[in-house]
């Protein structure tokens, strides 16, 4: 059974799927989660705290997928992370915004003002450059012999496919995915 916090975040996500964030009211989220509005405020402090928790949850879910991708064979790890990044960003507008910094209309945005995190104990969602660094460092640590710079290039290539998709490219085995696979193949050096 999900905790009250998880139930509230699920409810907020359902509300966000139905309408733009600026129209989602705390009372609506509480009603969807079948809890009192006070419970919602006790958990997140403010509407901004709820938004930040939604973003943090999306970032944590993306990072959990990165960790799963890093269980691939060593030579496939950069490709697996790049493919996960592309798929996750295509499937989840919050992940796409967290990775790119481009916030589509109707999404909650992080409040970067000092002291505006809703609840003092809440962790802020990572900025795109922080998220990229986290993933790059995890890739490099899990891929012996693969330079951190190569890991970053692979990620940036995946993000370029997110930001500027190939026209008509929405199939599971798309041209962008094939491009990522090709770009992340291990380099075989020929002897002279």
Question: What would you note in describing this structure?
Answer:
The chain has 192 residues and is mainly α. It is 61% helix and 0% strand. The protein has helices at residues 4-18, 26-33, 37-44, 47-69, 77-91, 93-100, 128-142, 148-163, 175-183. Helix 1 (4-18) crosses helix 2, helix 2 (26-33) packs across helix 3 and helix 5 (77-91) packs parallel to helix 8 (148-163). The longest helix is centred in the first third of the chain and has 23 residues, at 47-69. The chain is elongated. The chain starts with a helix and ends in a 9-residue tail after the last helix.
Beta content comes to under 5%
Radius of gyration from CA coordinates: 19 Å
pLDDT < 50 runs, ≥5 residues? none
Total beta strands: 0
Specify the helix fraction band.
55-70%
User: Tell me, what's the shape?
Assistant: elongated
Main β sheet profile: none
The oligomeric state is single chain
Instruction: Tell me the structural class.
Output: mainly alpha
Could you give a quick summary of the protein structure above?
The chain is mostly helical. Helix content is 61%, strand content 0%.
Topology:
Layout: H1 4-18, H2 26-33, H3 37-44, H4 47-69, H5 77-91, H6 93-100, H7 128-142, H8 148-163, H9 175-183
Helix pairs in contact: 1-2, 2-3, 3-4, 4-5, 4-7, 5-6, 5-8, 5-9, 6-7, 7-8
Characteristics:
0% strand; elongated; mainly alpha; single chain; 192 residues
């Amino acid at each position: 059974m999900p905790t009250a916090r998880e139930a509230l975040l699920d409810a907020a996500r359902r509300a966000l799927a139905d309408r733009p964030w600026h129209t989602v009211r705390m009372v609506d989220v509480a009603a969807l989660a079948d809890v009192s509005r006070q419970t919602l405020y006790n958990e997140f402090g403010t509407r901004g705290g709820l938004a930040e928790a939604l973003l943090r949850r999306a970032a944590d879910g993306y990072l959990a997928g990165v960790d799963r991708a890093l269980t691939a064979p060593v030579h496939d790890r950069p490709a697996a992370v790049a493919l996960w990044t592309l798929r996750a960003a295509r499937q989840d507008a919050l992940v796409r915004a967290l990775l790119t910094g481009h916030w589509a209309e109707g999404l909650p945005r992080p409040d970067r003002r000092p002291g505006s995190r809703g609840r003092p104990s809440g962790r802020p969602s990572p900025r795109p450059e922080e998220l990229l660094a986290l993933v790059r460092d995890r890739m490099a640590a899990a891929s012996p012999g693969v330079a951190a710079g190569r890991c970053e290039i692979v990620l940036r290539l995946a993000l370029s496919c997110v930001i500027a998709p190939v026209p008509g490219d929405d199939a599971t085995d798309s041209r962008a995915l094939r491009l990522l696979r090709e770009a992340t193949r291990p380099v075989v050096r020929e002897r002279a």
